[in-house]
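Forwarding these from the shared drive since the link keeps breaking.
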Amino acid sequence: MPRRCGVGPSVEATLWYRGRVVTPDDLATIRGLLATPGISRRALSLQLCERWQWRQPNGTPCDAICRGLLLWLHRAGHIELPPPQWTTGKPWRPRTSASPVLIDTTSITASLRALGPLVFHQVRRTPDEPLVNGLLAQYHYLGYQQPVGEHLKYLVVAGDRPVACFAWGSAPGALGLRDRFIGWSPAARQRQRHLLAVNTRFLILPWVQVPHLASHLLSRMAARLSADWAQVYAHPIVWLKTFIDPARFRGTCYRAANWIVLGRTSGRGHRAPTKQATRPIKEVLGYPLVPDFRRRLCEG
């Protein structure tokens, strides 16, 4: 989230937006671009990304983040954006919703061997993505929430029947248990955090009763995630992390798949104004994808 640095009233504040400093010179650059006759918000964002060399690891301009920054500056009164040139007629839908899906819920009870070949489909930006969204919304205890930033989603199929879903997203900023285990300094974390992925959702559909399926899927997932991530986002993944609610789960399948228990969170969240717990305490587990993960994450 954006924030201001404390400065005197006669000096324009230095602004921070998602880890990027926005200086008075940057504001002057934006205002200069806004003076271009007929410039649109999209054109402004793309030109600013080009000026700042603000790109994702795969070379794509950080257009969505840049537009968010411009809109925040506009609402805070630092700049005045041109009116939007396009609006949608679709009804607004919250990020936590997904369309329901109709699917065969006949019980699948078998051994892992008898279940047959399991096929992983990476569904991000494919026609099957709404199916995964809907299954998570209907059957995962946390429901569905559209991720922001880099993320991938998977549908696991046995024959013609979906049996499981995965969702992976970008890693959060500071997390003491993880950072101490890796040996991260704040600078190394800022530089290398994109090499981490978080397992935000793991769902085995409730009518699927197959012993050892969960740990098997986690092992298969770990073997392919980095290559898939590099194909979409042009960089690998070195370390995986997840949160377990110990009031609900023991995390047995993660432990069986050799994930490492790092400890438990304080329950305060990363922006808690006091030291009082404000949210459920979670167990943190991690999984290195390469033997030299500490060197790669700390040295770059």
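-- next protein --
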Amino acid sequence: MYTLAVVGATGAVGRQIIEVLEERQFPVQAIRLLASERSVGEFVEFKDESIPVQLLDQDSFAGVDIAFFCATDLISEKFCPVAAAAGAICIDTSTAWRMDNAVPLVVASVNGEAASGYRTKRIIASPSSSSLQLSLALKALSDFSALERVVVSTYQPVSENGQQGVDELRNQCGELLNGRPVKNKLYPHQVGFNCLPHVGDFESSGYTDAETGLVREVQKVLAVENLRVTATAVRVPVFYGLCQSVNVETKETISVAKARELFDGMADVELVDNVNDVEYPMPIDVSGQDSIYVGRIRTDESCDKALNMWVAADNLRQGSATNVVQIAELLGSKYL
């Protein structure tokens, strides 16, 4: 039985972590819900109990075994070392520690053994939902043949920006449907009934940090530093559910039939690929699910060693909360 802390407990990912802990019956002795001053006094349900939200401070982690961080980079940078010094193992969902060479970047079903590297800083990083989703899909193929090149376009929902993103899309859709002009607060342009080829901040290369981050994170998770990956990230007017169009070139030819067989045998991957019955993964179908869904698998007719596929998953649940709880399960079964 473990004493847990959830930093950012009232946010979208924090609430999902609490839900997944209960659903997967993680052995919880006590749970400490931590947040900023504006959330103190709120209650969150866990196992038929109303747990009060406490203020995050320097003394929050005494006696904590595992601390889940689902807050900003600044919060993680400041408080992960505090929690680690108090004896906790931190599992962090922010970008703060992902590319730190002393911190393992872990997707439980892909490189779970890397979690053992937590001992250096007592921190484990979880990748972005885009990187996690893509890594799972690529792992199934890379177990059969080495990867040569990956081209991915991601279609990212507004919930990746938390409640602010959800509220902005909801408000804009309401205004537009009633013939009224909209105001942009979070995004640089209207997101309602629109697509923005802009996720993150632009860099001098013309890519955004979300795109370059995806490339580096996938290389680190798959432990292939020279893997050629290029990405385009698009914000779409969808509340929940992240989709990706993926082109994968491999060293050996992988037939469509073989690819389907590989995906069928991969943990946390579901195959939905029957165009005759118009079946393929969609955001509305993956919400609340713990797997990634793969479909539209087809040979790239311009390259005989490449496949095209479409991948979808719940960005808050499978893309974040489920993975960090799975990492905690690995810690409990192998390292604690």
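The CA atoms of residues 21 and 325 lie 7 Å apart. DSSP finds nine helices and 13 strands in the chain.

- D.
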